[in-house]
Amino acid sequence: MIAHANKPKTFFVKILRQDAPGKPSYWEKFELDYEPELNVISVLQKIAAKATTAGGQKTTPVCWDCGCLEEVCGACTMVINNKVRQSCSALVDKLLEDGREIELKPMSKFPVVRDLYVDRSRMFNALKKVKAWIPVDGYYDLGPGPKQSRGDQEMAYPLSECMTCGCCVEACPQYSKIELTPNVGETPEEFEDRKVDTFNRNFVGAAAISQVALFNLNPTGKMNAGERLDALTEEGGIQVCGNAQNCVAVCPKKIPLTMSIGRIGRAVTFNTLRKWFDRPAKKH
Amino acid sequence: MRRQARRWKGSVVSSAPSFLERHEFLLRRLHSLAGLVPVGAYMMVHLAVNASVFGSPRIFQRLVFHIHSLGPVLPLVEWTFIFLPIIFHGAFGLFITTGVKPNIEAYPYNSNLRYTLQRATGVIAFLFIFWHVFHMHGWFHNHFWVTYVAHPLMGAEFSPYNAGSSAALAMQASFLVPVLYTIGILAVVFHFSNGLFTLGITWGIWISPTAQERAKLLANVVFVIFAVAGMASIVGLYSMSQEKIAEVRAEEDEAYKVLVETGDIVPNPEKHSPLSEYAPGKHSDAEESDVEEGE
After folding, report:
1. Is B44 on the interface with A (CB under 8 A)?
2. In this complex, is the C-beta atom of B99 within 8 Å of any C-beta atom belonging to chain A?
3. Considering chain A, what is the average pLDDT of its residues?
4. Which candidate from B7, B21, B205 shows the least CB-CB separation from A235?
5. Closest CA in chain B for residue A255
6. Euclidean distance between CA atoms B237 and B114, whole angstroms
7. Judging by DSSP bridges, how do beta strands A112-114 and B11-14 pair with one another?
């Protein structure tokens, strides 16, 4: 383990806060006693319990989102020392190797709900857009599906580890923030429709493209491969990718995202040509 | 229903989906393809032909005569396969570059640096080619334009029937010219070689990380080859002495005389250097000198 020697007695945590959607953001600094083996979540718990800034002023507890605490749900993703990652697996001992301060910011590509808690609904909407599922529900037993080869299983497993955390799109220079507010006289349903419409017209991002690679690899999922590829050639589809390849560099699950992008890039080209020449969908 | 404010590429617009939005996939793919064929392919031929001037202005002139043996069809070929594709690739490239936010400080990875450089060199290449075509070619061959607009602004300096000698004079007009050409050519060649690498990902030619690493190496080799070719032509033109230029010009005129007789080259006074013995206004035994309006 990392030596706990040479560690400071106290350390600082600088947090970019925001009281509500659309409100201005501001920095607040907290000072905490050093303890070995903290992670950023436990730091945030201590700050919430303390609710006092480094200057000694009372403040509101910092808000954040989390779920599993073992880097499989993606909810606690934030920008820690300028790098996007999960706060549950961000260990304070490691972060303090470079200094006495830890900087926490909410992800910049999603609307802030409050403090470090963001609204990632655009990520989930992208999964809906590309139909990232296998339709097997019905009124009767469809029987066993076709078998998947060992090779395909091995290719699919890493892709299935995606937790839709948002790291890939946070680091993506082609993915820009969308933050909408209800218009005057707009019903919640109309607002929701407008939101979905806007999401659908903007870049889907690496995670959703990789999910198409996953579900199009599945023997049953393949039956709807064309629909998923069609969704990826609509506005905001795979063509928006600029090959910066930051997605694969920041993915906490080391998912081969650029490989998925390459494979799906090829598939959409053939799918589009097939449609153009009015050929039937590829037989799988 | 579509008449509503929505955000697109960073700006809020209020209208039905535009042509560009509806055909985003097709346009992006065409943009990617155009970078290779015809624009990139043309660039490779162009740099290779020009590099020949380093070794032999005579071979360079020969190659230029081959190109200009197309005669009156050449402008059509130029506009269809060179100018219009470059204009599309450049204009659409600028359009899709606006609105992206480079984040190289936060994510300083090799691929991200390439991504950022790809956009920066694209903008440099756009400006450079805009000027370069004016400087050498003049954009249009209309007599009025060439005489009263291009020449006074240091444009249309290249005379195809005196290729080496006129290009050398154009390159030596100011020390700024070779500097701008060096920056421009390096930007263009990087943009092309890195574009080749990303095109292979976009079209799914190199997919696995190993394949992409090899492709990146290949792209770097392509960069070195064409950067050297480009520099060779600049050095070849910039280092040509005045005596050598006069000598080369005489040789070019000699070759022209022979090729006109064999019918391989169509006489065209505008394609001679003003210093050539066949230049319009000078006495020449090729054609009447007032056919210059005929082009």
Report:
1. no
2. yes
3. 94
4. B21
5. B209
6. 31
7. unpaired
Q: Domain boundaries in chain B?
A: 23-99+109-288
Structure tokens at A160: 């299935």
Fold of B23-99+109-288: 3 helical TM bundles of succinate and fumarate reductases (1.20.1300)
C-alpha torsion B83→B84→B88→B89, nearest 10:
-40
CB A78 within 8 A of CB A170: no
- Min Cα distance B33 → chain A (Å) is 12
- The answer to whether A54 and A32 have CB atoms below 8 angstroms apart is no
With 60 as the cut, is the pLDDT of residue A2 above it?
no
Question: Which of these, B181, B186, B195, lies nearest to B53 by C-alpha position?
Answer: B181
Distance in angstroms (rounded) separating the CA atoms of residues A121 and A133: 17
Angle made by CA atoms B43, B47, B50, in degrees to the nearest 5: 140
- In which band, very low, low, confident or very high, does the pLDDT at A4 lie, cut at 50, 70 and 90? low
Those residues with Cβ within 8 angstroms of residue A85's Cβ, 6 or more apart along the chain or in another chain: A77, A78, A167, A250, A252
Helical ranges in B15-152 per DSSP H: 19-22, 24-36, 39-55, 57-68, 74-78, 84-97, 110-132, 143-145
pTM of the model: 0.91
> Same domain, yes or no, for A157 and A268?
yes
Over residues A45-104, the pLDDT tens digits come to 999 999 999 999 999 999 999 999 999 999 999 999 999 999 999 999 999 988 899 999
A93, A82 contact by CB (below 8 A): no
Average pLDDT across chain B, whole number? 90
Check whether residue A140 and residue A252 sit in a common domain.
Answer: yes
Of B244, B257, B190, B186, give the one whose Cα is nearest residue B220: B190
From the list A83, A183, A266, the residue facing B203 with the nearest CB is A266
